[in-house]
Write a structure and sequence with these properties.
Elements: E1 7-10, E2 19-23, E3 27-31, H1 39-52, E4 57-62, H2 68-71, H3 74-81, E5 84-88, H4 92-96, H5 100-103, E6 119-121, E7 126-129, E8 132-138, E9 147-151, E10 156-160, H6 181-194, E11 198-201, H7 210-226, H8 228-247, E12 249-251, H9 252-260, H10 263-271, H11 276-289, E13 293-296, E14 299-302
Parallel strand pairs: 3-4, 4-5, 5-6, 10-11
Antiparallel strand pairs: 1-2, 2-3, 7-8, 8-9, 9-10, 12-14, 13-14
Helix pairs in contact: 6-7, 7-8, 8-11
Length: 303
Amino acid sequence: MPLPSNLQVIERGWLSANQVYLWSDNFLDVIDSGFCTHQSQTIELLNLKMQVLTDRTPRFLINTHLHSDHCGGNAALINDFNFKLLVPSAEFDAVQDWNEPLLGFSELGQPCPVFSAFGTYQPNTVITLGNLDWEIHQAPGHEDQAQLLFNPEYKILISGDALWEKGFGALFPNNEGVPNIDGAFATLELIAEIEPNIVIPGHGSIFNDVSQALIFAHDRLAYLRKNPDRNLIHVVNVLLKFKLLEWQQCSQEIALDWFKNTPMLQKIAELLNQPIHDLFQQSLNALVKSNAIKIRMQTLFNA
């Protein structure tokens, strides 16, 4: 089944999450806003759409979850288009107070411009975006307050980072050093139960072989559960690669300084009982081996 004519997916990449535009005769709604360094592109893309949808008023901006690659453009879209931002209900107070320890951007060593929310949306309810009704389902794992949006009419799932065609978002350890692998498994079971035909992921292309994606994700979770250190090392590699996506290039010295001062990486070094400099070098070696970064003359380059 094709996507409805009043829904458009903007596939962005791995630094900025995908966006979804939905519109009715009167309004335009947007899901997710990308990373802050891409905000000029985010605005340009929306301006191009508004030139076509001349009679629509920007209405709701929704975040599937509050990670910097999904909400880094919030402030820009609110300021330029007067969107009303809706965030998961459990995150509202942290946003309004801009409670950094709860929001966690600095814990991951990532920037995010300050924004305010207009209201909330809650799990086990239905929200109308464009002219389509979307069921809201909580999706713990990658982010415990993340939400899935499911349209039963077209059987479309907007999965955020809970499910990609090949995997899911990194499972960050909590304050006790434990990732929510059980929550991630429960989210996969929920997706299997609602039986979507089309999945719009937070990153990567739209896909419809949902059963194969679920098998891949289950196998990946089982692999990580078998040896918790694997998951911790994966998180380290993801965070360093993401920083290189943001910076594109930097000296090895600057990267190490960022690494040593990022709380999540400090925590993981403690959990692994490993000097943080050694962990940095280990991650560098792994990323070079996988061709995710290149090193020339003590300078790191995104690849």
